Amino acid sequence: MFEAVMDTKEEMQHEAGTIVPIGALEEIKRGEVTVEGRVLELWEPSSPSIQQVGLLEDETGRTKFTIWKASRQTMVQEGERVRFRAAAKNWYNGRCSIALTHWSEIVFPERGHWWE
User: How many CB atoms neighbour CB 89 within 10 A?
Assistant: First the structure.
């Protein structure tokens, strides 16, 4: 029974829209992922086409993220909890990172709603 539950859990991680632990990004077989974590730090963009670049962390690991200016996303802040939906996986020097594109979405779980 336990093995069946674990197999089902593993299969669900590979489905679109499921929040993937950052530590498992490399194992996910699709090109777009949804991750949630805290913005650990932001860096100075190396290109004028980059809106923001930084490090996202959850309890399983860390990954670099890039938000492209053309994606027209909301700005994030250090220390803020965010969920990146439909982020594109990228590989550079054997390391997995994510990029937010026009099709991506940023959700801020800890921000209040304007009507509250």
Answer: 19
Strands (E), 17-109: 32-43, 50-58, 61-68, 81-92, 95-100, 105-107
Inside any domain, residue 31 = yes
- Token couple for 28: 């996910």
43 within domain boundaries: yes
User: In the prediction, which pLDDT does 88 show?
Assistant: 96
Please state the pTM of the whole predicted model.
0.81
pLDDT tens sequence across 11-33: 444 445 689 999 999 999 889 99
For 2, the token pair is 């336990």
Asked if residue 51 is part of any domain, the answer here is yes
In a domain, 115, yes or no: no
Q: What is the DSSP letter of 12?
A: H
Q: The domain containing residue 21 runs over which residues? A: 2-107
Round to the nearest angstrom and report the end-to-end CA distance of the chain: 44
Dmax over CA atoms of the chain, in Å, equals: 53
